[in-house]
Amino acid sequence: MNRSFHKSQTLRFYDCSAVEVKSKFGAEFRRFSLDRQKPGKFEDFYKLVVHTHHISNTEVTIGYADVHGDLLPINNDDNFCKAVSSANPLLRVFIQKRGLEKDISFGFG
């Protein structure tokens, strides 16, 4: 067994309850983790995303890519839980300034 290999592994390889989130706003990407079993509420996730991207004063719409590549909205607790539970292994999140949603359709039609 190669111990140095195991030491270099990140938390996501050891903790199956962690979901790695890769969020994109404009040209900037951020990564963070959530607990798959207790992801929390949408409102807290929204605050985390805008804080992580340093866009606290900006109204945004959040969406995610499902397993089929479709962009779906994350705008309430149910959608948020569905997004976290479907992440395998990565949850890809896309953030768009509110009012510009027509540029990227998050399953709104």
UniProtKB/TrEMBL annotation:
<keyword id="KW-0472">Membrane</keyword>
<dbReference type="InterPro" id="IPR000270">
    <property type="entry name" value="PB1_dom"/>
</dbReference>
<keyword id="KW-0965">Cell junction</keyword>
<dbReference type="GO" id="GO:0005634">
    <property type="term" value="C:nucleus"/>
</dbReference>
<dbReference type="Pfam" id="PF00564">
    <property type="entry name" value="PB1"/>
</dbReference>
<dbReference type="GO" id="GO:0060341">
    <property type="term" value="P:regulation of cellular localization"/>
</dbReference>
<keyword id="KW-1003">Cell membrane</keyword>
<dbReference type="GO" id="GO:0005938">
    <property type="term" value="C:cell cortex"/>
</dbReference>
<keyword id="KW-0963">Cytoplasm</keyword>
<feature type="domain" description="PB1">
    <location>
        <begin position="18"/>
        <end position="98"/>
    </location>
</feature>
<dbReference type="InterPro" id="IPR034868">
    <property type="entry name" value="PB1_Par6"/>
</dbReference>
<dbReference type="GO" id="GO:0007098">
    <property type="term" value="P:centrosome cycle"/>
</dbReference>
<dbReference type="GO" id="GO:0007163">
    <property type="term" value="P:establishment or maintenance of cell polarity"/>
</dbReference>
<dbReference type="InterPro" id="IPR053793">
    <property type="entry name" value="PB1-like"/>
</dbReference>
<dbReference type="GO" id="GO:0016324">
    <property type="term" value="C:apical plasma membrane"/>
</dbReference>
<protein>
    <submittedName>
        <fullName>Par-6 family cell polarity regulator gamma</fullName>
    </submittedName>
</protein>
<dbReference type="GO" id="GO:0070161">
    <property type="term" value="C:anchoring junction"/>
</dbReference>
<dbReference type="InterPro" id="IPR051741">
    <property type="entry name" value="PAR6_homolog"/>
</dbReference>
